[in-house]
Amino acid sequence: MKIREIGELLDAKLLTGEDGLDNEVSSACCSDMMSDVLAYVKDQGVLITGLINPQVIRTANMMDMVCIVFARGKAPTEEMIDLAAECGITVMCTKKRAFEASGILYCAGLSRKSEAKDA
Amino acid sequence: MPDKVRFHFDVDGSDFSSAGAASVQVKKKLRQLAYPPEIIRKVSIAMYEGEINMVIHANGGVVDVEASDEEIVIVLSDRGPGIPDVDLAMQAGYSTAKDNIRNLGFGAGMGFPNMKKYTDYMRIDTEVGKGTTVTMKVKL
Ligand SMILES: Nc1ncnc2c1ncn2[C@@H]1O[C@H](COP(=O)(O)OP(=O)(O)OP(=O)(O)O)[C@@H](O)[C@H]1O
Ligand SMILES: [Mg+2]
Q: Ligand 2 centre from A37 Cα, in Å?
């Protein structure tokens, strides 16, 4: 799935990283615990979170993630957006809750690589 | 890849918002030096966990990174409270972090096990009341 489609599916507002919109991602992770993201993420390209602090951006950078979606309409600070731009990460925010956003993306095929799409 | 490059950072323990900034810098530099992506990923995760620990548990410290064509060595030193029981601290899920830390997204007790997982060598020298030095190596 292209990052652009994630934005469309979640009715999300793009905050930075327009250049990355055509990048392909195949899986995502949803967490407010950066400790867990660091310990369990393997090749998930997208992070969905409700946590707002610069460590969200830095954690995604360490894990080579390419897109962050802030859920529940939470807005990252200017400083966080600048940091993400510097790290080449696409950032958007959606009014949907993290659970709902995850469900929508899962149903659209994200993180379901090994399953048939209509299974 | 260069013969040997060294980086030094002072990690401010009083300002959580800057925690992890040194690791972002190191990652950027290792990319410029054209280290393989999987090596950079291991170094990034291990150093970042150590840097965050230094801020949340030890009020800051210093980080030294030495990168050569054989290995990358990361040394994190602090003058924090030290670790009374290293074996216990190494266990997955063990954490002394309080709710204020968990609200920031850390304190699951996964940092040390993760640092061990992503490095080829890890050593913790610590003395209660004096401080802690964590040394890690990632081989190329
Ligand atoms: N530099 C340090 N100085 C003093 N104590 C430390 C230091 N680093 C770690 N510790 C102690 O070791 C424990 C385990 O550390 P570890 O990094 O595994 O987990 P955590 O930091 O509590 O949570 P997480 O890393 O998952 O966010 C900590 O809770 C703390 O008690
Ligand atoms: Mg830790």
A: 12
Give the pLDDT of residue A113: 67
Q: Which fold has domain A3-110?
A: 3.40.1390
Domain of B130, CATH number, reads 3.30.565.10
Instruction: Measure CB to CB from residue B105 to each of A51, A61, A64 and give the nearest one.
Output: A51
Distance A53 CA to ligand 2 centre (A): 17
Does the pLDDT at position B2 exceed 70? Answer: no
Domains in chain B: how many in total? 1
Q: What is the residue range of B116's domain?
A: 4-139
Locate the domains of chain A by residue range. Answer: 3-110
Residue A119: pLDDT over 60: no
Most informative mutation of B57, B90, B102, B114 for ligand 1 (most atoms within 8 A of CB)? B57
Residues of B within 8 A of A61 (CB-CB) are: 24, 27, 44
Indicate the SS3 state at residue B135. strand
Average pLDDT over residues B122-137: 98
Predicted pLDDT at A117? 45
Mean pLDDT of B93-111: 96
